[in-house]
Structures are given as C-alpha cells and as structure tokens.
Amino acid sequence: MRTKATPLLIKCLAMGIVAAWGASSAAAQFTDSTGFQLKPSFSLGTGMLGFYGDVGYQSKYYSPLVSRIGYELRASSPITDWLEVGLFAIHGRLSSNEHGTGRNLNFESRITTGGVQFAYNFNQLLRPGHVVEPWVSVGFESLEFLSKTDLKDAQGRYYHYWNDGSIRDIAEDAPNASSAVVIQRDYTYESDVRESNLDGFGKYREQSWAIPVGVGVKMKLGNGFDARIGTTMHYTATDLIDGVTSKSKANRQGDSRNDRFLFTSFSVGYAISTTPKAKKWKPTLSPEQMDAIALNDDEDGDGVLDWIDRCPHTPSGVQVDAHGCPLDSDGDGVPDYLDDEPHSLAGAAVDERGVALTDDDILRGYLNYKDSGNVTMVSSRVESFGPVGKPTVKRPPIPIKRTYVVKVGAQTEGISEELIQRILSLPDVRTIERGDTTYYVVGNYDALPDAIKRQLQMKGQGFEGTLMMDEDGKLVDLPRGGITPREEEVLNNLAPATPVKPGQVVVRVQLGAFRNKLAQNIFTKVPDLVTLRDKDGLTRYYTGSFTNINEAAKHKVNMLLDGFEGAFLVAFKDGKRVSIAEAGAQLSGPENLTNIPVGSINTEHLTFRVQVGTFVGNVPMETMSKYVDLGNVKPVTSESATRYLYGSYPTRAAAEEARKELQNLGFNDAFVVGELSGRIIQAEDAERLLKGH
Question: Which among 145, 146, 155 is positioned nearest to 188, based on CA atoms?
C-alpha cells in the first residue's frame, strides 16, 4: 500500500510557528502611541470539509457541509490594529459520491495543507470595546493529497452499475449477465486513483498550491481566549484531487475548472498577554477615614447601610425589608415592583414576571420541536455476508417504529469499572451499535414529555442524558429547541416518568468477558444484550434485567444450554456491584466481587459451510434444480432472506477446498461461512472462536 508523508510541510510549519512566536514576543515588548499591542495567538479547531469538483458535479445536488471532518492548527499575531497575519495547517479528508444513470463515480482523498493567511477585522468601523468582530482573509498555501476510490467490495468483486439502479458483479451487457447477482457498496476506498490510471494521466504529482479566501466572526471570551467561526474556500491549482478532468475518458469526462474545497470550522484560541503591569494603587486616605466612609455609606439610598445590605443597587423608590431587599408579598421569588401577579398561590411555579405557569407553559420549550414528519428518514442496511438474489416477490415497505429514548453514554474505547457498574445498575439500559461506537440508552417512550421527565431523572442520578429518537434500532438526533433556566428548574420538580427506587437490586446474567469483541450474529437469540468494554481490553456481554433472583437463575440456565459456558449471575445496587446473597440467593461460601472470569462459548456444534446463494422470496426453478442436483444443500431462513448452505466441515481449510470444487461446477459466487447452533457468522469469526476468541 502506497502512503504519503509530509515531513517537509510539517517541519516548515513548525519553524514558521516558532518564528512567529519569536517575532511576536519581541515586538510585544513595546506599545505604540495609540495603545496597540502585538500579541501572539495560538488556536485549535475542527470543522467540515466540502468538495467542489468534477465528481459530484461541483456539489450541485447536495450540500457540501455534509462531508468529512477536518482539523486546523493556527499561530497568528496582529501587525496593526486592523490586520492579522497567521500560519496555519489543515488535515482531513475530502470525499464525493455520485450515483445515477449516466455515471457512477466516487473518491476519498486525505489532504494536508499549510500556509500563511492575512485577515482584516474591520476595526476602524467598530465601536471601541467591541466583543464580536467580523473578518475576511486571503492567503497562500501548499497542498498535498492522496486520493482513493471504491471500485470493488470486500471479496474483490468489481461494481457494475445497471440501468435499474442496482449494483451487480457482472456488467449489464456481458454475455453471462443473466447470472449476475446484486452486491452492495462497502464504502471502503481501497483503490489508489493515481495508480489505477483509468484516464492515462500517469504518475502525476499529488501536490499543488492554493489560494484560501475566507469570511467569519471572532468573539472575545476574556482572559486572552477567543472563539472563531468561519468558512474558507480553497481555490487550488490542480484538477486532479478527484482524478477526473476535462481530459478524462468517455463518461468520466469533467469540466476544465480546477478543484476547490470548503472548510467551515470552529476554533478556540489563546492570545499571550503582553500588557504591562499597572502600578499598584495606593489610597490617599488613612485606614480610619476609609472605615468611617464604608460604615456609613448607602450607595442605593434605600436606608440600609452597604455593609449589611444583602441587595445592593436597589432601584430608587422601591420598598425594601430590613436586609435591603425588595419586598415580595407572595414569596414567589419575584419582587413586588416587578410582579404582574402579586398574589400568586403559595408554591405556584411562576415566570419571570411572577405569573403562574400552566402545564402547557412548563413543557412549551421542549414541545417546540419540529414535527417528526420533517425529519429525513434513512432506512437501515441489512447486514449481509454475500450476494443476494433478485427478489421475485414484492413485499410492502415496513413502517419504521419511532420512540423516544435517553442516551446516557457512548463508548469507542475502554471505560472504567466504576462507570460499568453505574450503567449496569440501570434496570432498563440497553446498547445500540453504530459502527465502532456503542451507545447506552434507557427508556422507550411513545410520548416526548415522558422522555423529558426521564432525562431530568437521569440528571439527578449523575448522568448527562441526551434525548434521541430510536427508529428500529437506529439513533436519530432530535431537532432541538431551547428552554429557559426557570422552565428547566420547574421541569426538575416534576414527578419522573419511571422512578427508580433507591436500594433496588438489579440482577443480570454475564455471558463472560472475552479478549476480542465477538460478532453480533453470535448473540442473535440473546435478549436485552448489553455490551461493555473495560480499560483492560476485555469485552463483557450481559443479558436480562431481573429483580427476582429465581427468574435470573432460570435465564442463566437457558444461556448455558445455548452454548455460553461462562455465564454467571451478577447483581448491582445504587451504581455498585453487590453480592448475589444481597440479591436474595443462598450461597454455601463467600463470594469474590472482583472476579471477572474469561468467558467461553461451546464450539462443539460449530461447523463451516459453503454458501451457494441467498434469496429474498421464491428461488428461480432453474437455480433450485441445481441445488437439488448438487445435494446436501440446507436452507437457513432469517427475517430478511434465506441462505442456501452446502456441506458441513470441521475446519475452514476443508470448506475452502469444497468451495473451489463448487466454483468449478459453476457456482461462482460460493463462499465459506460459519454456523454456530443455527446462527450464521462470518468465517473469520468462526475461526476466532475455535482459537479461543
């Protein structure tokens, strides 16, 4: 695999930052007659990279903001009160995909840029002491890129796009097109664009220069910190980032414009303060004189001396109590001179004007979400290990079930034992997998107010919960609307939707702790699965949530019979693991709460088979006749399709030999899978189980 390095660019950038720091520090030792000071500033930021080029038709049909993440490092310093110069570096990925009847192109490019930029801040037009200032910028940068494209799937089969919109393993105009099967893109960009040389461009240079032109605003946060939001268009001097130009062949041909990319980012910076220390002020009055002034001063003129006034700066003419605070006759927290309803009922929740709130008022902020019908729906892709035959029976679309949940955590790497025990103490917690990230959610509510109350309850238990929608196992963010601090305070006083009793014991069945993460198909028949990976690298699997120890014991027996030989009971209470005896079991000896046995799965019934086809609906008679003639073909039906498997072999090597023989007989798409107690898994996962996970 060819890789690109950027040592020269990084070295030059580092030297430039050091030079800017030295120059700025030296220049910062003086202040001119206008009070302007030179301050070196360093910032880090992240944002979205959008591509404008031949692939994707210059982002004509989609928003360039829906793209890849990039990162920015910047060192800068003002050289006048209205002009700033800075050195910067950006690293990230560009990508674009187009799919249609005319052509089907895609690419992904890893880019690294570094250069110098000048920014104008309109300081002459802004009021002194302003906090927010706009800016425009222009600069010059060096650009390096490494572009790849997705031409084939994980099994090495090239994509052929048919006019009916499907992707198949054989070209539509090929003589044997009738035997083509539908495949799916894996979105793994495995083919180097330059090395593929599809248009005969040869070993062109994957390096260029560009002119970045940007606009944005900067907000001064105080104490030297600032936040910057902006967008910059990078006009490059190359048309080869996506590998397509006006000289490309056939329908790959693009236009003559050079490629561009847009970086929309947010960054936080810190400026080194060079303001000289002010001379220490010394009073001209004696301590006795200052004490006399302080003891007898009444700044707001309310008749209460400042040193005992609990509410200084009271408006003139407002009646106050003995402590200097405005009178509040109904005790609702709103003083009488601001209260539009001065005689509210005792204990009533009121707004900032002292008017009692109704239930509809209380939930107004949360119920101001967009209607769920305005949310773009994305159907989930069914996991598949191989080609799926063209369905012969049309099935009506299944409506997506949408409920509201509270996300209490997410995990990409290992987490602490303390956090694991807190999560497992939640009786209704479950996990949802999305890529390499595992999300932990609680609740399953049809009504949004119930989910809101549960979110507030979780906050009281120390979990920063986030409201989300669960659409058939896929988490979707809610379009959010805000609430005032007063409304949130009232919502916190509402009764929770599903209260959790303090001291409640939750018993679960731990299937084991495995050195490697297991395939999800292994747990197809396991209910209420919770997956947790600790800092030691062990991945633990739990099932069930019981308050009755006998029910938990029955579930453990079922898991043992299902092949999980390491299954055992664990109990949790108030965020900590407790003994099984505390959960109601009778033990003959002491229990070790630190015991985390390594799990095991019974592989006695693990075999390797050769998959010769997968079909949704009826199998064509011609294909079924081949299976009958072949013999020893077993159908395995799931919710999405029916797989047809041949043979049964103790090792993968033996199954691979059978696969080669089947391909010689005309079953070109045959491949090896594993079968564990009726569950179909990938051959690699089956081998890992045989080797002890």
Answer: 155
Q: CA 95, CA 574: separation in Å to the nearest integer?
A: 47
- What strand order describes the sheet that includes 474-477? 430-434, 437-445, 402-411, 466-471, 474-477
Q: What is the largest CA-CA distance in the chain?
A: 112
pLDDT in tens, 270-299: 988 655 555 555 556 566 556 655 556 677
DSSP of 631-652: --EEEEE-SS-EEEEEEEESSH
**What is the model's pLDDT at position 108?**
93
Q: Distance from CA of residue 209 to its chain's centroid?
A: 32
Structure tokens at 18: 């050091």
Q: Are 194 and 170 in contact (CB under 8 A)?
A: no
pTM of the model: 0.41
Q: What is the DSSP string of 122-147?
A: -GGGSPTT-SEEEEEEEEEEEEEEEE
Task: Enter the tokens of residue 166.
Answer: 């499907």
Among 391-405, 497-511, 599-613, 656-670, the range of highest mean pLDDT = 656-670
Label residue 321 left, alpha or beta by phi (over 0 means left) and psi (-120 to 50 means alpha). beta
Q: What is the pLDDT of residues 608-647, one digit of tens each?
A: 999 988 887 777 888 888 888 888 888 887 766 788 889 8
Which residues 6+ apart lie within 8 Å of 595 measured at CB? none
Contact in structure between 222 and 141 (CB atoms under 8 Å): no
Does residue 339 sit in helix, strand or coil?
Answer: coil
| Distance (Å, whole) CA 386 – CA 670 | 9
Give pLDDT, residue 598: 62
571 and 577 Cβ atoms separated by less than 8 Å: yes
**pLDDT mean across residues, the chain:** 77
Report the alpha-carbon angle 601-604-610, nearest 5.
100
Q: Residue 672 and residue 650: Cα distance in Å, rounded?
A: 12
Beta strands in 102-250 (DSSP E): 104-120, 132-149, 160-161, 167-168, 191-192, 207-222, 225-236
| Of 40, 39, 61, the residue nearest 52 (C-alpha) | 61
Give which of 379, 370, 443, 440 is closest to 411, Cα–Cα: 440
Nearest-CA neighbor of 568 among 589, 598, 547?
598
Strand residues in 524-605 grouped as ranges (E): 530-533, 539-546, 568-573, 576-578
Burial of 341 (0-12, 13-18, 19+ CB in 10 A): middle
Distance CA 682, CA 674 (A): 6
Give the side-chain half-sphere CA count within 13 A for 251: 8
Q: Helices marked H in 260-311 — which ranges?
A: 287-295
CB atoms within 10 A of CB 98: 16
- Amino acid residing at 113: T
Which of helix, strand or coil describes residue 99? strand
**In angstroms, rounded to a whole number, what is the distance separating the alpha carbons of residues 671 and 183?**
14
Reported as type and span, the H/E element at residue 359 is helix 359-362
Q: Quote the tokens at residue 338.
A: 């601001």
Output the CA torsion sign for 239, 240, 245, 251.
negative
Task: Please compute, for residue 622, the number of CA atoms within 13 A of its CA located in the half-sphere on the CB side.
Answer: 4
> Residue 139 is which amino acid?
G
> 12 in the Ramachandran plot: left (φ > 0), alpha (ψ -120 to 50) or beta?
alpha
**Residue with structure tokens 């239930």?**
359
Can you say how many angstroms the Cα of residue 496 is from the centroid of all Cα atoms in its chain?
28
